[in-house]
Amino acid sequence: MKINGQFFEVTNVESFAVSYLLNPAKPTAGTFKTAANIRIELASILPNFPGGFFPGISVKTNSASDGTFGLNVSDAQLKQIAAINKMAYFVAYRQNGSVHVAGQTIPIFEPVYRSEAFDITKYKPAGTLKMYFAPYAVPNSAGIAQSDVDTQIGAAKKSFKDISKLSASIQDGCISVSGSGRGAEIKFKINPSASTSFDLSSFIKGKVVDLDIDLPGPDFIVGICVSKDDIGKEVDKGIAGIMKEANKTIEKTLVDQVAAATGQTKTIVSALFKTTASVTFRAITYPVVEQKSIKIPGFKDIKIDVRAIVPKISIGFPRIIK
């Protein structure tokens, strides 16, 4: 199977989106430009595997200086993908920097496009597959606020059967969580990262790191009162719930922002994202959005930075591969 395509970067998302809705085959000229050196991957969906930043099994290539690319999928590769799961999807990345480690230069990529999953065994490439991505600025006010995290943590606390108190704060690069209950103290961090999953309703995922559980009493008493494994399992469930709610919040916020920017109704924009376009986080930032003063008797007020989780996003077209 040979898939010929061309990648473009949208330069005027408002005008492009409206024209693309009217005629996907001929969006308004001057609202996009060719995108060179985009890493395009045709990825297999692995059952019961959460996936990483790059797909576990894929066929990949890079776009040329004019955005064109050719993806050669051999019969053996096609059989391998189909044998695992007939469903596949496209995901694309742009290099936005590099780091030097141990004498080597390692590129840093940001995801810019995802397609909806499709049956690779039924896909018949025809003509040139044109793909577009539109970097979009999300204002700090539209990010995940500390109050959102408080609400989600409060709801997630119900999942932590051994934890009676739970709180979280947005830090620079993570969400710091602490809790206590039944004599146990628990601390951990959630590292949010961009989702490159085929699940287009998932924009952000959270990984638990630095999990520290301080249990009371000798080991034989601890075994009766509370289990580290049980708490760990509840943490995983709770974080999954938090991320699910966070994704819902992000989706609603994005629809509101794009509707306001384009002058379209929220109904039209919502339909756009469900039928025509996809959304992918390119990166996640943690800007300081305000400062709060904490009063301590006998001391000067302490200023505390209040941060939000604000994504840099990319809107991709088309959502559905035909």
In summary, what is this structure?
With 322 residues, the chain is of the alpha+beta class.
What's the overall average pLDDT, rounded?
83
Q: Any idea what the radius of gyration is?
A: 23 Å
Number of strands: 17
Ends distance: 15 Å
Q: How many strands, which pairing sense, and closed or not: the largest β-sheet?
A: 6 strands, mixed
Task: Tell me the helix content.
Answer: 25-40%
Write the layout of secondary structure elements.
Layout (H helix, E strand, L loop, with lengths): L1 E9 L2 H10 L9 E3 L3 E7 L13 E5 L5 E5 L2 H10 L2 E15 L2 E11 L3 E2 L9 E8 L9 H11 L8 E7 L2 E8 L2 E11 L9 E11 L4 H7 L2 H35 L3 H10 L2 E8 L2 E7 L7 E6 L2 E8 L5
Parallel strand pairs: 1-9
Antiparallel strand pairs: 1-2, 1-5, 3-4, 3-6, 6-7, 6-8, 9-17, 10-11, 11-12, 12-13, 14-17, 15-16
Helix pairs in contact: 3-5, 5-6
Provide an overview of this structure.
- This protein has 322 residues and is an alpha+beta fold.
- 26% of the residues lie in helices and 41% in strands.
- It contains six helices and 17 strands.
- It has helices spanning 13-22, 75-84, 146-156, 219-225, 228-262, 266-275, and strands at 2-10, 32-34, 38-44, 58-62, 68-72, 87-101, 104-114, 118-119, 129-136, 165-171, 174-181, 184-194, 204-214, 278-285, 288-294, 302-307, 310-317.
- Strands 1, 2, 5, 9, 14 and 17 form a six-stranded mixed beta sheet that branches. Strands 3, 4, 6, 7 and 8 form a five-stranded antiparallel beta sheet that branches.
- Helix 5 (228-262) crosses helix 6 (266-275).
- The two termini are 15 Å apart.
